[in-house]
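note to self: dont lose this again. the chain is below, predicted strucutre after it. 260 aa total, dont forget to put it in the shared folder this time
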Amino acid sequence: MNAKITTSKSIGLVLSGGGVRGMAHIGLIKAMNEFGIQAKAVSGSSVGALVGALYANGNSIDDMLKFFKETPLFNYHYLTIAKAGFLDTEKYVALFAKYFPENAFSALKKELHIVATNLQDGNEEFFSDGELIRPMLASAALPPVFSPIEINGNLYADGGIMNNFPLEPLLNTCDYIVGSNVSIVARLDKKDLKNSLQLTGRVTGLMIYASAKKKLSACNMLLESKEVDKIGLLDRKGIEKAFTIGYDAACRALEAQLKE
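---
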């Protein structure tokens, strides 16, 4: 695909899952803003769904970063033994309501698609209308840390389980697609595969990347920075670093686009 981003009638933005590494998505959005580029529609999975919702809501870059810095990942008040998961995801609804008081897709300024995994029937499901907050939480509810979210009688969890790069809703509706993938598969040293936990993490990462590989090549512009691989999925100390990595990479990519 050789279309130019500045001449496109409509731009779609796909944001992958990847925990704290997803702050690179916010860096991309900052660069797009500075180049005068706005997406018409956004599709996100897991942390990509959260960033996508904030972008579609019209929140500033500072507000987006503030959201992730101030929303507690771990709070002993949220611990649960009554649900499948260490933390009760339902407890986050009130925190999210501060940013999304109308709690509706229709209140957003941009078209938004969120993917979550239906744990009961084993399918991915997209949400783009109706209630907003619970699908957002479901998409980001990484097992076994966060408990599943119940929607219409079904239990939903992290969208990345089934679809970590949700390109599908934008394929036939956008002229130009920008993708940001922070679930990177970088080369590992032998010393990084010494125990079962490291091995499990690596295998899971490879499976997620393999399922998204073909879709990544369908983007007109794809942002993938291997530097984010060094940032832990739940390492809040990596927020600023991931953001900067994403911003720098996006600036370089957009400058290259404009020179073509």
